[in-house]
Amino acid sequence: MSMYKQITLVKRPENGQISADLFATREQEIPQPGDGELLIKQTHMSLDPAMLGWMSDDRESYIPPVELGDVMRSSGVGEVIESNHPDFAVGDKVMGMMGWTEYAISNGERLNKLQDGISEEMALCVFALPGLTATTGLYHFGKPKEGETLIVTGAAGSVGSIVGQLAKADGLRVIGVVGSDEKADWIINELGFDGAINYKTDDLEAKLESLTPKRIDVFFENTGGPIQHHIVNRMNDHGRIVVCGMIADYQADKPSAGPNWLPIIKKRLNIQGFTMPDHWDEIPQILEKLSPYVQQGKIKYRAHTIDGLENAVSGLNMLFEGKNKGKLLVKL
């Protein structure tokens, strides 16, 4: 009898803290696919900040929470081991929402084959949630124009790094906000950003002013924190603010105060919050938009890979401690 492991959510986090006792590992017999189904052996699994929200019992969120006792939700890449589905063959590499599990059964819905030449790392770092989110937020709501100035927080993260590279490829001046000098060096010297702000050590107002001589047209927000006040005050009239994430508040006892409404009114700013589940049906069009940038070598990425399903919890905590350097993946 062949067995496999999966990790389920058994408790809700308290005060935004992620601990091992929230989860349980169970072993089960590897299932057999039924009619129209396929069996996938997952090889790489993505860890994302949104998981903390998925674990919380928030019934008014953009996506239902993971129910207690269910396998923890995540996207991943795997290989088809058995198939009774006409569109998938044994050996196909596929990507989709598989969860914290070594094996998964699928009926093929929202499951995409990896094209030849696309590695598992590239699939999860670029063509999965990071690239889809960056492309959707930037073009649907940021509406960038050549010659404008864009600033992105969490600029060395999986989403922020792609946002900045897309904008730079489109002829914008791009400034990134990061949490270390190493990350600042990476986004400038490797990704081609025009400047970087270390929110932990720089004089935020002075550095922002020096790096944005023409002020700011597009603000892509991933983190929250005090710098957002300075950025809003530095926006041009009719600027666009795309609110994608607020990782600084996810574990905070009390959410930080938002920007003052007066500059928003005076500058007639457009502020749009968004989440990818609203755009699942647009994925083919989003990938069509993103793919040429990748094919032309304009999108670089780096993966931070940890080994073993059993290390998923400690890996997830790395995201909120800022210890990861690149898209965080688990290799199974």
Summary, kept brief:
The protein has 332 residues and is α/β, with parallel strands linked by helices. Helices cover 29% and strands 26% of the residues.
Structure characteristics:
single chain; 332 residues; alpha/beta; Quinone Oxidoreductase, Chain A, domain 1; Rossmann fold; 2 domains; seven-stranded mixed sheet; six-stranded parallel sheet; 26% strand
Describe the 3D structure.
This protein is of the alpha/beta class and 332 residues long. The protein folds into 2 domains: 3-114 and 302-331, Quinone Oxidoreductase, Chain A, domain 1; 130-277, 3-Layer(aba) Sandwich (Rossmann fold). It contains 11 helices and 15 strands. The strands form 3 sheets. Strands 3, 4, 5, 6, 7, 14 and 15 form a 7-stranded mixed β-sheet that branches. Strands 10-9-8-11-12-13 form a 6-stranded parallel β-sheet, sandwiched between helices. Strands 1-2 form a two-stranded antiparallel ribbon. Helix 7 links the parallel strand 11 and strand 12. Helix 2 (120-127) packs parallel to helix 3 (129-142). The radius of gyration is 20 Å and the shape is globular.
Looking at the structure, the CATH topology of the largest domain is: Rossmann fold
Domain tally:
2
Count of DSSP helices?
11
The total beta strand count reads 15
Q: Stretches where pLDDT falls below 50 for ≥5 residues?
A: none
The share of residues in extended strands comes to: 25-35%
SSE order in H/E notation?
Answer: EEEHEEEEHHEHEHEHEHEHHEHEHE
Amino-to-carboxy terminus distance:
20 Å
The overall average pLDDT, rounded, is 94
Sum up the overall morphology in one term.
globular
Main pleated sheet? 7 strands, mixed
CATH architecture of the largest domain: 3-Layer(aba) Sandwich
**For the record, what is the CATH homologous superfamily label of the largest domain?**
NAD(P)-binding Rossmann-like Domain
What would you call the structural class?
A: alpha/beta
